[in-house]
Amino acid sequence: MTRLKRETKETTVTLSIDRNGGEIRVDTGDRFLTHMVETLARYAGLGLELDASGDLRHHLIEDVGISLGTALRKETPETAARYGWAAVPMDEALAEAAVDVGGRPYYVGPLPSRLYEHFLQSLAVNMGATLHVRVVRGKDKHHMVEAAVKAFGLALRQALEEGGTVFSTKGSVTLEVE
């Protein structure tokens, strides 16, 4: 389990996360953000308690993404399966997500919402993950974003599973900084 508190002049985010599951309780003060974070946790199989507040919606969504990514980086086992992929239909929407939690931060979208594009990018970069999200089709922005978040959650669940060995031709990577 990882606990994190991130405070700026603009936001406060407190969370505890467990990749092995558990209760999900989220309060961000933004109903759609709360819904998306709960959805991500459920589909990824995570236990999550998160409280967040902020001055502007943009700052809140960005800082929740940064905090979740930072905590998920700590929760990623060295012997993670590493890769995950999923496609999710939601009414008229269809979205796909592919993730690599191997420590190479990168994000490719787009989503039909700049705020949630930024949320996923902030999460992926701070997690040290490569995340590709593609909305194949859709008309309702809510459905397209939610399908993408669900697909990411399912892909993340696969990627975080214990693989029993370091899944890299490099083996374990160590870095010393002075």
Structure description:
The longest helix is centred in the C-terminal third of the chain and has 20 residues, at 141-160. With 178 residues, the chain is an alpha/beta fold. The chain has helices at 31-44, 57-75, 114-127, 141-160; strands at 2-7, 11-18, 24-27, 47-54, 83-90, 93-100, 106-108, 130-137. The protein has one domain: Ribosomal Protein S5, domain 2, CATH 3.30.230.40. The radius of gyration is 16 Å and the shape is globular. The strands form two sheets. Strands 1-2-4-3 form a four-stranded mixed β-sheet, covered by helices on one side. It has a four-stranded mixed β-sheet with strand order 5-6-8-7.
The CATH architecture can be named as 2-Layer Sandwich
Query: Taking strands numbered 1, 2, ... along the chain, how are they ordered across the largest sheet?
Result: 1-2-4-3
Spatial separation of the terminal alpha carbons: 28 Å
Q: What's the tally of helices?
A: 4
The named CATH superfamily: Imidazole glycerol phosphate dehydratase, domain 1
What proportion strand?
A: 25-35%
User: If you average the pLDDT, what whole number results?
Assistant: 95
* Coarse morphology: globular
Element order, helices and strands?
EEEHEHEEEHEH
Question: How many domains is the backbone divided into?
Answer: 1
**Poorly predicted runs of 5 or more residues:** none
Number of strands: 8
Biggest sheet statistics? 4 strands, mixed
CATH topology: Ribosomal Protein S5, domain 2
Rg for CA atoms: 16 Å
Q: Which class best fits the helix and strand makeup?
A: alpha/beta
CATH class: Alpha Beta
